[in-house]
Each structure stands twice: as C-alpha cells, then as structure tokens.
Amino acid sequence: MTAKQHLTRFSAIVLPLAAVVGMSSAAQADEWTPTRNIEFIAPANPGGGWDTLVRTTSRVIQEEGLAERSFGAINVPGGGGAVAWAQIARDSGNPHKLFATSPPLILVPLAGASRYDHTDFTPIARLITDYSIVLVRNDSPYEDLPSLIEAMEQNPQLSVGGGSAPGSMDHISMAGLAAAAGLNASDVNYIPFSGGGEAMTSLMGGHVEAVITGAGEASGQLGENSQIRALGVSSPERLGGALAEVPTYQEQDIDYTFDIWRGVMGTPDMPAEAVAYYEDLFSQMLETDGWQQARDQLGWIDAYQDSEEFGAFLDEQKEQFSTILGDLGLLGE
Amino acid sequence: MEALNNLMYGFSIALEPINLFYVFAGVFAGTVIGMLPGLGPISALALMIPLTFGMEPSSGLILMAGVYYGAIFGGSTSSILLNAPGVAGTVATSFDGYPMAKQGMAGKALAIAAYASFIGGTVSIIFLMMVAPLLGRVAVSFGPAEYFSLMVLGLTAVVSLSDKSLVKGLIAAVVGVMISIMGIDLQTGTERFTFGTVHLLDGIEFLVVALGIFALAEVFYMLLKGGGGKEQPRNAIGSLKLSKSEVKDIAAPIGRSSILGFFTGVLPGAGATIGSFLGYSMEKRLAKDGDTFGKGNIKGVAAPESANNAACTGSFVPLLTLGVPGSGSTAVLLGALLVMGVSPGPAMLVDRPDVFWGVVASMYLGNIFLLVLNLPLIPLIAKILDMPRPLLLSLILIFCMIGVYGMSFSVFDLLLLLGFGLLGLGMRLFGFPAAPLILALILGAIMEESMRRALQISGGDWSIFIDKPISMWLLIIAALSLMLPLVKQAIKLAKARS
User: Fold this and answer.
1) What is the 3-state secondary structure (H, E, C) of B425-484?
2) Handedness of CA A198, A203, A209, A214 (dihedral sign)
3) Cβ neighbours of residue A227 under 8 Å, at least 6 residues apart?
4) Residue B38 pLDDT
5) Half-sphere exposure of residue A96, counting CA atoms within 13 Å on the CB side?
6) Which has the least CB within 10 A, A76, A151, A257, B478?
7) How far apart are the CA of A96 and the nearest CA of chain B, in angstroms?
8) Hey, is the C-beta of B335 within 8 angstroms of any chain A C-beta?
9) DSSP letter, residue A246
C-alpha cells in the first residue's frame, strides 16, 4: 500500500454547466443529447494517467462549449480499475456514464483479477497514445538498445525497473521488446515499482540498470543536465519535442512497437444514438485549440479511432497481450 | 549570498498582492480541510486543479502548496481534541495530545502544536532553500535496500511504543503488518487476505484503521465506562500560555524533530506520517521522562507536530528538483504543474526560477499566516470540549463516518471502520497498545516491498543489505537501539550487585 495508503480516495469536480449555446453540433430533433450531467469516471486515484485524461477532456469540453451538459470527473480507485469496472458493468444501458480506459482494461482481466473485460463495455473512442521508453543512467555503458539486450542475454540478473506490477503495461512492453530482440520474454529481471517516478528515481540512484516507462512521463526528465538518457522509444516513428533525438526500436533493427493508448468507453449496451453523440463530441474536441495545447503540454499524441475501429483494435490487443502473458506464465484462470 | 538574492527574488513574487491572496486562501482552506477528519490534502488538491487553470504557474503552485501544508498544520486539531486524526500525518500527535486535552490542557496542547508546526515548517523551508539542489542526490541515494533498513529502524520503535507488555506490543505490531499487506501484491499480483471481495483488492485505507482504532474505540470505551451525560463538562480548555521551563523542555525536541522530519520528507515514499512517528519515538527514547509519553507529555505533541510539517516541506525537494513525486499529495501537485505547462525537474531551477523561489518564499509567509490564524482560533475551537458528553460522542461518531465515507464513497469502508472500532475497544480492554499496530501498518508494506525488490535486484543475495553503506548503517543503528536498553539494564544490575 505504500504511499497510496495516504491517498484519500475520493474527489470529484462537477464543472459548471457550459452556458454556451449555438454549438457546432446543433442538435436536430431526432438526435440524442444528454438529459443530465455526465459522470466521467477515472478508475483510479487522482494524479494518474486516467485521472489526467478525464480532467483534461472535461475541462476542454467545458471551455470550448462543446456539450450541453457538464462532465463531472469522479475517481473510483481500487484493484487497478477492477472496482470501477464492476460498478459500471452493473449500470447497463446508462447513457450518462463514461470512463477512461487504457491497456489495463485488457491486462487485468487476462491476469484473472477482474471479472469484466473490454467486451463487457461499449467502446466510444480511442483518443491518444503514449509510447514506452527505455532509459539508462547517463554514465551507463549501454549506448543503444542492442548493447543493453546483449548485456541482458549475458547476465539474466540485469535489473530493469518499471512503474507497474508484473504482467501490467511496463512489464508487457519490456517482455515484448526482449522477445522481439531474440530473448525469452521471461528472461527479463523486471523490478516493479509503484509508479514511473519511483522507478526513475531508483535508476538515478543506481539501484537498477535500466527502466521502462511512459515516454510522456519521462520527457520532463530528459535533456541537458539530466542524469538519465533514453535508448529507444516504442513508437513507429520518432517523437517530437524533447524526444526528437531518441531512436525508435525499429531504427535499431528490433521490429517491435508498443502503444500505451487511452480512450473512452461507456456502460454495457449503451444506446447507439448516445454512442454516436459522444463519438462526435470527442472527435470535435480533438480539433480544438484548447485540446491541442493541453495535449502538447502533457506529451500525448492524438490517435483517434471511432467506436467501431476502437472495438476491433481492442480485440487485436487482447490477442497480442495474451500471447506475451502466456510466455511469461502470468495468464490467470 | 546567492541563496539570499534568490530568496529576495522569490519574495518579490510571493509579495505580489494576488499571490499574497493565494497564500492566504491556500493556507486557510488547508487548515479547515485538515481539521475535518477524512477530507485530506490529496482530495482537496485534486479539487483545486480546475481552479488553477489559466493561472500563472507560480501562483497556482503557491495556492496548492498552501493547501497542502495548511492541511498538515490544521490536522492536529481533531487529533488533540477528539482523538480523531484529521490527516494521516497527525496520528502520532493524538498519542499525547488527546491525553492532554482530557487533563484539561487542550489549549496548551493546541498551542504547542501550532508553535511546533510553525517552527518545523520554517526550519525546513530554510533547509529547502539552502540545500535543495544538493538534496536531490540524497533522495535518489535511497534504493530498495536502504528503504528496507530504514523501515527496520522505524519498527524498532515498537519497543518504546509498547508501554507495559512488550509481548502485547509485538502482537499488535504483527497484526499491523498483516493489515498492511492486504490487497494485491505488487511483486506477483497475488491477492492476499482479500477474502474474495473487490473492496479489499487495494488493501485498507490507513485512515479507516486509524479513525477506528483511536476515535471510534474511544467513543465505545467512554460509553462502556462513562455512562453518558453524568459527568459534568470539564470546562477544560486551560491556558494557552507556556511556562519558561516548558518552552525549554520542548525546544530541543522541536529542533531535532524538524531536522529528522525534513530528511524523512525528502525521501520519496516516506513522508509526513513516517516522519511524525520517527520524531515521536526518537524523543520518547531520548527523554528522561520517556515513561510519561502517551500520558500527556508536551514533548509528545511537539515532536510529531514539528516533524510532520517539516516532512511536508521536505517532500517538495524531490518534486521540485527531480520532478519525482514523493507522496500522493505531491503527485497531484506534479500533475497540476504539468497541466500548467511547467515540467518540474533538474532544469526547472534554471528555466522557471519564479516557480521555485516564489513557492519557497510563499511558504515563509504561509507559515506565519498559519500561526496568526490558528492561535486566536484555539479557544473557540477548543470549546467543542465543553459540549455535553452525549453530544460530543455523537459528533465524533459523525465526523469519523463522514470522513471515511467521503474518502471512498464506500459503505464497505464504514463497516470496516466499525470493525476497527471494536478491535480498538478490545485492545484497550485487554491492555494491547494501539500505537505499535499503527506504526507497523504504516511501515509494513513498504518494508516488505523494498525487501523483495532488493532481493530481486541482487538475485536473492541477502548481502545487498550490508554491502550498501547507508543500509548497513541504518541496520547497525537499529540493532544498537534495541541493545542499548538491555546494556543499560545490565550495567544497572551489575552496579546494584556490587
């Protein structure tokens, strides 16, 4: 429980009703529009990735006057998301309840820690993506990914820290990378920390040899005077900004990419009209200046998919993840 | 000199009228939030994020930092008056603060808490200013092995926290460790002690246990022993003034605990709660009248209060110099800063000196505001004790329940609260001390996680705990602190015989 113990668990904001009339989605008579305020759930404590997504999108939608009703951010932490999923799954058909989601919605159920998985909910839209980044200390002997991989091959004890539990995002990402580079997925000595920040601190202090974490989270740590440097990112093409110098895995002849996508889902069997309304709302939001500014500040990359594409994408992800989890022996019953 | 120039620059920002207002608003909101059990600084900070949209980053951080240390400052009030800790960092304050209140010295306890908080806060800001850039290195020097050894050292305090029976103290500590490891195990993903319910997957919230075992158990105990309403109200605020000898008594503990607290705060993950416990148990061991700790010793209020405020300031070191949040509250602050377009980290001191120095300067002001704000309020707030007993007990009950429900919106947690209240009552009736349980609960999970992480890094080789110098010294100090009382006793015995 560590520092999480001291986290108080609840917080909610209800953004004031956007009093702007004459929105671009000027409703036609037969189109569905929300009849009350929308509960937008972050299945975690304040401060994390889901929470930031929920609060940022709620704010942009309000500031840009995109919706007739306001979005209230609600934190439902517990079980890596499982508590919130269990609650939302009971609210079948409710068109006023959304939640932020990302790979744990697939990984947690695969590990056997949630009865509900993505097939129980209604996909609305994929919004953004982040990528994994492999970091070492500045004075580390490893100059590129192949040299790190080679060292891991020779010394299976070589410690690679990550910001999440075994079998979750960072571990899967690293195991997949190792497998693509010719090692066994289970040969990675993965050390779980309770957050990317903690993992990076451990790296700076020389307690682990390498760290894998989200590129967005790491970008603030890189640059001049930094104690750490990056060996590679899991994106198909180079990223911008502070990460422009960091080569992709593929540039280093490791044919592997990994997305840390984030999106929005709704209650089970949400009516199709409501899904269409939200799809449209979020795709409009992505076009606004307010969003683009916030997105760049947070180091996110737009990766919009509509409900149908997102659903198909989730199915693909599940297949990919089950293979790696199987190799790691972490598949739950 | 450079630090002084920088500080002057910081004050030029903090003294801008709008920022002055934010400091005041922040600490005022923080104090109120801290006084109410359950509504802690983290949820308050998360609530404030939307308010900071569009603000200058320095103003936003000044406001939010004010809420954070204001809450720790104000958190002692309900610990002392009601035995119901307002925030986790003030649990240790109730050990002596509440007995003082019961003895009619509520005013004095609150005043000491305010002075100690003020000094702890101010001393640590001086540290933050002078050595923050260097301290970044201290923060990262603690890896899994070092954390494990630090937690071992912390746990040796169980001995001093078990007043009568060491065995009962150890039993309580073991129960505390067991509660601390409930939930999903981070290393393997295995569920432990969850009894198949999702409500326990993340373990049990610390404040649920603390409110149950202290506040609720106290209510039950009074109901059992007191017979509601018969006793006259104690008109029990007492004087706020400290005598010269009392000032002399608490000066050294406040100084020591401020420094200890600051360094505990600097370590990511340790924070105000551990800082206050370490401060408390250190002073209990150092004090000549250590056996009166837990019965209303003024040093037992001064030490944890200065330590927790110092730790709160200390936790800004990893946030501002490394960009790494050391606690839940600073994680929310980090998120807020990112949204405002500032990435804290090594480059921030150079790129955004206004944010760093503005906040540091605002903390000086904030601590003065807090003292000025809190002292005159003490007689008013302490009047709560004049209430007739049945009313007071109901009030504590309501406070605890609102606090717990407000944290999680979970009825399950209310049942847990009741359960821990009954456990606390049972422990009291059978003479089991509660403090070791709480201490073990705070330290247990970090200790276990760190140990397993360290062993995973070393490939199962236990020598990692001795090979690392910091870890070795911490273990040696832990061993000494366990042996010293035995040696002392042996010498005494030998002397008595000869």
Assistant:
1) HHHHHCCCCCHHHHHHHHHHHHHHHHHHHHHHHHCCCCCHHHHCHHHHHHHHHHHHHHHH
2) positive
3) A137, A138, A204, B140, B346
4) 63
5) 12
6) A151
7) 19
8) yes
9) P
If you average pLDDT over residues B208-226, what whole number do you get? 88
pLDDT at residue A300, rounded to an integer = 86
* Residue-wise pLDDT tens digits, B444-463: 888 998 999 999 999 889 99
Chain A residues touching B409 at Cβ < 8 A: 10, 76
As a whole number of angstroms, the distance between CA B292 and CA B441 comes to 24
* Residues sharing a CB contact under 8 Å with residue B367, sequence separation 6 or more, in sequence order: B69, B73, B117, B118, B121, B122, B125
> Is the Cβ pair B339, A206 closer than 8 Å?
no
Domain boundaries, chain A: 2-129+260-328, 131-252
| Residue type at B232 in one-letter notation | Q
What Rg value do the Cα atoms of chain B yield, rounded?
Answer: 22
Instruction: Evaluate whether A2-129+260-328 and A131-252 have a shared fold.
Output: yes
Pairing label, strands A228-233, A122-137: antiparallel
Phi, psi of B352 (to 5 degrees): -125, 65
> Which of B172, B88, B10, B153 minimizes the C-alpha distance to B478?
B153
Tokens of B449: 């996680």
Q: Provide the domain count of chain B.
A: 1
Give the CATH fold of the A131-252 domain: D-Maltodextrin-Binding Protein; domain 2 (3.40.190)
Residue B103 parent element (H or E): none
A165 touches chain B (CB under 8 A): yes
* CB-based contact A42:A53 (threshold 8 Å): yes
Structure ipTM: 0.76
For the segment(s) A2-129+260-328, the CATH number from 3.30.750.24, 3.30.365.10, 3.40.190.150, 3.30.460.80 is 3.40.190.150
Residue with tokens 């009291």: B428
CB atoms within 10 A of CB B146: 23
User: Cβ contacts (< 8 Å) between A224 and chain B: which residues?
Assistant: 347
Q: How far apart are CA B210 and CA B204, in angstroms?
A: 11
**Å between B2 CA and nearest CA of chain A:** 20
State which residues form the domain around B250.
2-497
Per-residue pLDDT tens over the stretch A270-317: 999 999 999 999 999 999 998 998 888 777 889 999 999 999 999 999
Of A263, A314, A283, A322, the closest CA to residue A129 belongs to: A263
Indicate the burial class of B367 (C-beta count within 10 angstroms; 0-12, 13-18, 19 or more): buried
- In degrees to the nearest 10, what's the CA dihedral of B486, B489, B494, B498? 180
Which residues of chain A are modeled with pLDDT < 70?
1-30, 47, 224, 333
Instruction: Give the contacts of B430 (CB within 8 A, at least 6 positions apart).
Output: B168
Chain A partners of B205 at a C-beta cutoff of 8 Å?
A: 5, 8-9
Distance (Å) from the alpha carbon of A273 to chain B's nearest alpha carbon: 30
